[in-house]
Amino acid sequence: MSEDRATDAEDRHYRSKVSVVEPYGVEHIPAAERHGSPSSQFFIWFAAGMNFPIMVLGFAAVSYGLSLTAAVTAIVLGSLVGAIVQGVLAQMGARLGVPQQVQSRGPLGFFGNFLPVAYINVFAGIGWAAVTIILGAQALRHLAPIIPFWLSALVLVTVQLVVAVFGYNMIHLLQKILSFVLFVGFVLVTLASVSHSDAVDFAASRAAPSYIGAIGGWITFAGFFMSFLIAWWPFASDYSRYLPDDRTTAAKAGVYTLAGNFVTLTWLGVAGALLGGSAVAGEEPIAALARLTGSWAPVAMIIVVLSSFSQNFLNIYGGAISVQTLRIPVSRRTAVVAICATAYVVSLWAGAGFEAKFKNFLFLGAYLIAPFGAVLLLDYLVGGRKDKGRIAELYDESRILDWGFVAWIVGVIVSIPFWNLSFFHGWVTERHPEWGDLTYFVGFATATVVYLISYRLPLLWQAKDRSSYDSSE
Known about the structure:
The protein is mostly helical. The protein is 63% helix and 1% strand. A two-stranded antiparallel sheet has the order 1-2. α4 (68-96) packs parallel to α10 (214-230) and α7 packs antiparallel against α13. The protein starts with 39 loop residues before the first helix and ends in an 11-residue tail after the last strand.
C-alpha cells in the first residue's frame, strides 16, 4: 500500500531521534510516535521569523508616507491577525496528526486539493526558499566579495538540503538553537542600525513616492505583515503533527505559535521601518543594512546568513511534503532535492531587482492563500474535521472534489478586482487606490460565505469505482 494511503502508519520507532532520517511522509502519525513539547512551536516560528525579509517589508513604511506611529500600529495589527490564524492551524496539526496539505483534502476533495497545493504550497516553498537564498548569498558576498553569487547560493542551499532531508526532529533541534543565536544577533543588528539611523521618528508625508492616502497606505502596509504569515498558513501543521494528541497540548501549541510569530514580526517590522527611513533611494536592502550597521556590518551579514537557514529549513521541508501530497511517486528525500535545485535556479534568475520581485511574489501567493486558509479553518471549526473518525477521508481517493474547492476558487475570483501587483492592478484598485489593498479580506470573506452555504451539501464529485484511483509503491 502507498504511504499516502496509510491512515494509521506503522510504528517506525522514530520518536525523538535527531540523527535519523525521518521515516514518515504524509501519513497520519501513529500515537506511539507522538512526542515533544508544545513550547517547541515557539522556537520553530520564532527562529523562522528572525529573518531579514521582514525588515525589508518594514522599509516600505516611509515610501507609503506613513508616520512612525501609523507604521507601528499597522505592523502590530497585521502581524496579530496573521499570527492568530497561524496558531489555530498549528493546533490542527497536534490534534489530527497529519500535514496541513493533507488536511485540505477534507474540504476540497482528494484531487480538488491538487491545484491549490501545487501552486500555493509547492510554488510558495520554492519561491520563499529562493528569496531567502538570495538574501543569504548577498550577505555572504558582503563578507567575502571574492565569492561569486552563484557559489554563495550553492553553499547555502546545500546545507539547507541536508537538514531538510533529516526532517522533523533535526529541524526542531536546530530551530531551537538558532532562536537563541538569532535573538542575540538581531538585538545587536537592531541597536547598531537604529543608532546610525537619522530618521528614527519620521512623520507622515503626502510627498512620499507610493502615497495613496493615510488610510489606504495603512491598510496596504498592514497587509504586508499579514501576508508574510498568510504564506505560512499552508505549512503550520507540518511542524506540530508529531505532538501528543490532547486538547491541552494542542491549545498550548497554538498559543506558542501565535507568540513566536507575533514577537518576531512586530520587532523586525518596526526595526525595518526605522531603517527604511534612512535608506538611500534605490539602495538594496542588504546594502542599506551594511551601511547603517557601520562597524557591526560583518556581524549583521553573518546573522542574515544564519537566518536564511532558519526559514529555509521550513520552506524546503514543507515544499517536499506538498510534492508528496500531489501523489507524485517520489520519496520525501527526492522531493527535498528537487525543491532545493529549483529554488537555486530561481535564486540565480531573481537576484537582480530582488525587492520588486519579492513583493509581487509575496502578494500573489497571499491573495491565493487567504481564501484557502478560510476554508481550512472553517472545515475544522464548524465542518466537523475535529472528529478523529474522519481522518480516513483525507486518504480516500474516491472523494475527488468537494464544495471547499468551490469556496476557494470563488474567493480567489471575487478578489481579483482588488489585486495590487506591479504588473496587474484590478479595476477596483485602479479606480480607488485610496482604499488600500483589500484583497486578503475580500478573498477570505467570500470563501467564508460560500463555505458556510455549501459545506452541508453532498460531496460534489465522488468516483464510483474507487479502485481506478488506487496506486501503490
